[in-house]
């Protein structure tokens, strides 16, 4: 059954000047007020009566979570103490009361992130990278870093932790070089030897190849629809693949992969925005109609990850000037070069090679995304979000 939308209904959609902040809308919504206040009150055994709206402190109270702990040397037990006293301390034990996240601020020192694990990832073409997992004090998500080459290392991962063994460091990836296999088939079938009897087997450190003084860096926000679902509404998957290809070619680089789907609004809201786009609204207006900003992404965690990897100068793969401004703001990181990421379908139009690519509209082949919906999306990014991409003069969207 077709759905008819009258002109009156369409004109009733909010405009950009009528945008109401998300917090204001939440507090105007009686269902939000009732449900959130009710659940919060009873989950904390408060005896006071319900208020018409939850107070600000209640809404912003962080949820306690187990944090990985980096123990400073000054906090360790005295090494002269009896062995029985030392044996009660372990570097992996979290504090009784985890520290609450600080209020967000645009300073890299407050956006602390630390690497909890690292492992080598081989790829089908014979290359490899080290995948790093980061926890942080800004949110409850695990963010990632794809690190190419051996010269870029995490300071927090390499930091010596209290009472750890060689195998403890190997398990979390705090080793240099490559691991070699030391477990026989017989050992694999039986219980592994414990303690000092377990040999980790570090292979010889590979010889470092010459790399650029300043590495390529891509700060990439996750996009399930574009990277996994092969959506032609965006070029996110294409950009990620191209960034990885360039870093493999140079033998060095970092992809900081931030878990902020849909320019920070989440996957469910992103799908709602898609429905509004199908009605004719562009990607910016769709977000505003859902009471979001046009772009709600933040880059404090990315700043902290780059700092942890020892990168204070980067060549940034991006078309987005806002990303450059946010990465450099209140930090020691400097973007000494912006490396543009021209959409491959537009690049083919400019070069006159468009007909050489046999790509069906809406499909992904040869790392190329193409289609009228993609063209519309890219034009909005250029015209309304300041992205630095040249629109092909011959394009008729």
UniProtKB/TrEMBL annotation:
Comp. bias (Basic residues): 35-51
Pathway involvement of the protein, from the record: Cofactor biosynthesis; riboflavin biosynthesis
CDD domains recorded: GTP_cyclohydro2
Reaction(s) the record says it catalyses: GTP + 4 H2O = 2,5-diamino-6-hydroxy-4-(5-phosphoribosylamino)-pyrimidine + formate + 2 phosphate + 3 H(+)
Keywords carried by this UniProt record: GTP-binding, Hydrolase, Nucleotide-binding, Riboflavin biosynthesis
Keyword Nucleotide-binding: yes
Enzyme class of the recorded protein, top EC level: hydrolase
Entries under SUPFAM superfamilies matching the protein: RibA-like
Annotated spans, Disordered: 35-59, 73-103
Keyword Nucleotide-binding set for record: yes
GO molecular function: GTP binding; GTP cyclohydrolase II activity
EC annotation from Swiss-Prot or TrEMBL: 3.5.4.25
Domain GTP cyclohydrolase II: 204-340
GO process annotations (BP): riboflavin biosynthetic process
Protein family membership: Belongs to the GTP cyclohydrolase II family.
Name of the protein this chain belongs to: GTP cyclohydrolase II
Species this protein is from: Entomortierella chlamydospora
Lineage of the organism: Eukaryota, Fungi, Fungi incertae sedis, Mucoromycota, Mortierellomycotina
